[in-house]
Automatic annotation (TrEMBL):
<dbReference type="InterPro" id="IPR051609">
    <property type="entry name" value="NmrA/Isoflavone_reductase-like"/>
</dbReference>
<keyword id="KW-0560">Oxidoreductase</keyword>
<protein>
    <recommendedName>
        <fullName>NmrA-like domain-containing protein</fullName>
    </recommendedName>
</protein>
<dbReference type="GO" id="GO:0016491">
    <property type="term" value="F:oxidoreductase activity"/>
</dbReference>
<dbReference type="Pfam" id="PF05368">
    <property type="entry name" value="NmrA"/>
</dbReference>
<dbReference type="InterPro" id="IPR045312">
    <property type="entry name" value="PCBER-like"/>
</dbReference>
<dbReference type="InterPro" id="IPR008030">
    <property type="entry name" value="NmrA-like"/>
</dbReference>
<keyword id="KW-0521">NADP</keyword>
<feature type="domain" description="NmrA-like">
    <location>
        <begin position="17"/>
        <end position="127"/>
    </location>
</feature>
<dbReference type="InterPro" id="IPR036291">
    <property type="entry name" value="NAD(P)-bd_dom_sf"/>
</dbReference>
Length: 337
C-alpha cells in the first residue's frame, strides 16, 4: 500500500473503522474493547468460541468461530481493517498461528499479536523469560504472510499482577504476606489494564496514513512493525507495599514479609518448568524482571505523551488490583501457570 492517503483509490477513508478482536471478554481484551467502543469510531467484532463462558461487552458484534474450522475464522475476518489478538496463554499452542493464517486469507492488513508484555527489543530478558522467542515467531509469521503488526509493550499489568498471587508481585492478600525479591528496591515498568485499553484505542483512532508528504501528524502507519510503548507506573515492590498499606489501612505489623534472592527464585521457577510444573512459570517470569541492574524498566521508551495517555492514581489502581484477588483466584488453571 502506498504511504500517503492522497495516492489511495477513491473512497479511501483513512480511518480504522472495522476492528476484529479475539478475547473481547478476556482479561485485557475486555479493556481494549471498552476503550475502542468508547471512541465511537469503531465497529468491534468479537471472534468467540461457541462454548465460550466469557461474557462479551455490550455493543460488540459477535462472530462465532471454531478453531478446528478455518473457514469460520476467515469469514469472521473478511473486510476487517485491523485484527487484535488477545488469546489466552493457556489456549493450544497453534491457536495464534491459526488466527494469523486465517487473517491473511481474509485479507486483513494489520494484526496486533499476543504479547502485551515487556520491551520486545530486550532480547536477553525475552529469552530468559521464554516469552521473547514466542512473540518474535508470532510477529515473523504475520510479516511472512504479507501483513503488518503493531505490538503492545506495556510491562506487567499492575492491577492483575498485584492481585494475581504470591508468584507475581509477591502479595498474598488472604495471608497478608509478602515475598520481596532482594531488597525490594528494583523498579519495573507496569501498566494498568485500562491504560493498555486506552493506548490501543488511541493508536487505532489515528489516521491510518499521512495525507501527503507534508503531513507530519502521528498516524497508525508510524507504528507498523514496531512496539507501542506505554506505562502507568514504574515501581519497586517497596513502592507497591507502601501503596497497599495506605489502601488497606494496615501497617508493617500486619504483614509477614520475607525476602528471597531474585536469582535463586528464578532458578527455582525454571527448574519447576523444566520438570513440567508450570506453576514455576510466573515465578521465573516475575523474579527475572526484578533482577537488580537488569530489570524490566523501559520507562525511557514509553510514548505516553505522544499518545496523550493520562496520569493515573497509584492508590486507586492498587485498589483495583486488590478487588481482583477473588476473581483471579477462580481462574485455577491460569493462576497455576
Ligand atoms: N503483561 C502482563 O502482566 C500479562 C499478564 C497476563 C497475560 N498477558 C498476555 O496477554 C495476552 C492475553 O491474555 P489474557 O489474560 O487477556 O487472556 P484470557 O483472558 O485468558 O483469554 C482471552 C481469550 O482467549 C480466547 N480463547 C481462545 N481459545 C481459548 C482456549 N482454548 N482457552 C481459553 N481461552 C481461549 C477466549 O475468548 P472466547 O472465550 O471469547 O473464545 C478468551 O476470552 C497474552 O498474550 C498473555 O501472554 C500479559
Amino acid at each position: 500500500m502506498s504511504t500517503y492517503a492522497k495516492n489511495q483509490p477513491s473512497g479511501f477513508k483513512n480511518t480504522i473503522e472495522r476492528v476484529a478482536i479475539v478475547g473481547a471478554g478476556g482479561t485485557v481484551g475486555a479493556h481494549i474493547t471498552a476503550a475502542l467502543l468508547k471512541t465511537g469510531k469503531h465497529t468491534v467484532t468479537a471472534l468467540s468460541r461457541e462454548d465460550s463462558g466469557n461474557k462479551l461487552p455490550e455493543g460488540v458484534l459477535v462472530a462465532t468461530v471454531d478453531y478446528d474450522d478455518e473457514a469460520t475464522i476467515v469469514a469472521a475476518l473478511k473486510d476487517q481493517q485491523f485484527f487484535i489478538i488477545t488469546v489466552a496463554p493457556t489456549a493450544p499452542r497453534d491457536t495464534h498461528s491459526k488466527l494469523v493464517q486465517a487473517a491473511a486469507k481474509a485479507g486483513v492488513p494489520y494484526v496486533m499479536p499476543n504479547g502485551y508484555g515487556g520491551d520486545i527489543d530486550n532480547i536477553k530478558l525475552g529469552e530468559e523469560t521464554m516469552l521473547g522467542p514466542v512473540g518474535k515467531a508470532n510477529r515473523d509469521e504475520i510479516e511472512k504472510l504479507g501483513m503488518q503488526w503493531i505490538t503492545v509493550c506495556c510491562g506487567f499489568w499492575y492491577d492483575y499482577s498485584l492481585g494475581g498471587g504470591e508468584s507475581r508481585f509477591g502479595f498474598d492478600f488472604d495471608k497478608r504476606s509478602l515475598t520481596i525479591y532482594d531488597d525490594g528496591n528494583t523498579k519495573n515498568s507496569t501498566s494498568t489494564l485500562s491504560q493498555v485499553g486506552r493506548a490501543v484505542a488511541k493508536v487505532l483512532s489515528l489516521n491510518e496514513l499521512p495525507a501527503d508528504e507534508n503531513d507530519k501528524s502521528l498516524t497508525l502507519s508510524s507504528f507498523l512493525n514496531k512496539g507501542v510503548y506505554l506505562k502507568s507506573f514504574v515501581l519497586s515492590q517497596n513502592d507497591m507495599f507502601e501503596s497497599v498499606k495506605r489502601v488497606t489501612g494496615t501497617t508493617d505489623a500486619d504483614w509477614t514479609v520475607t525476602h528471597e534472592d531474585s536469582k535463586k527464585r528464578y532458578e527455582d521457577g525454571l527448574a519447576q518448568v523444566k520438570s513440567g510444573n508450570m506453576a514455576g512459570f510466573a515465578k521465573l517470569l516475575y523474579s527475572r524482571a526484578f533482577f537488580p541492574g537488569d530489570s524490566s524498566d523501559f520507562s525511557a521508551k514509553t510514548q505516553n505523551e505522544l499518545l496523550g495517555l493520562p496520569n493515573e492514581s497509584l492508590d486507586e489502581s492498587t485498589k483495583v488490583g486488590i478487588d481482583m484477588v477473588k476473581v483471579l483466584q477462580q481462574r485455577f488453571e491460569r493462576m497455576a501457570s
